[in-house]
Amino acid sequence: MSIDISSHERWFTAFAQKYRAAERQDVKPVDLKIEHTGKVLEHARRIVGEERPDSVTARACLLAALYHDVARFPQYARWHTFKDSQSVDHGLFGVATLKAENRLKEEPAAVRRLVLAAVGMHNRFKVPAGVPDDVRWVTDAVRDADKLDIFRVMAGHLAGSGPKNDAVILHVQDDPRLWTPSVVQDVMAGRVAAYADLHSVNDFRLLLGTWMYDLRFAVTRRRLKASGLVPELLAALPDAVPVRAARARLLAVLEALA
What we know:
There is one protein chain. By secondary structure, the chain is an all-alpha fold. It has two domains: 6-148, Hypothetical protein af1432, CATH 1.10.3210.10; 172-256, no CATH class. 64% of the residues lie in helices and 0% in strands. The chain has twelve helices and no strands. It has helices at 6-22, 28-51, 55-67, 72-79, 90-101, 109-121, 133-158, 181-189, 201-210, 218-227, 229-234, 241-256.
């Protein structure tokens, strides 16, 4: 399925580079989001290619993947954080940004509707019950693609013992001994952990593992399993008995992915 969104990709590149050029403190988080967007779009293309939805849904999926983090650039420029609770909901801010920039004016109304809904909801803890099936499909596809690349980003960023970029780890404590019981409980209960419960880098590792409970598409699950990223992320967890049990639970979930 060939879908041309090259004009949107060119606009996104110019938009992101404008913020990159203006950044005076630390440009690395901006670069991270530029690369992340490209990877999420790649994953979305694979989902579309395997699932083969109708043309409107497919186009909306790719545009929503491209624009899902468009608000991260003004968010970081203004607040120097990617933590929404300390700044702004980047999903809703993304919708406002796309509207202010008039980015979807040339797209059919059906595509605009799906893109704006998916951008606005991609970062929700859960997609609200009762949303239309096409909205849920596009939103779930973007959420899967987003999660899959965040595994890559965080595995690379958390590797080694050097200092972590505070914006990337959402300002949690960078202490390899710390972990939070409620996050471990989420793992053992088969629940997705919440960002609000994160207090340490180890909590972040466990939260990422719980995302396996929430992946919708088989191609996403296969690619995550084949990547080797989950064992890499979990390997650095401390050897406390509850954490050891949580690691074992997540590795078993990974093994069962299909």
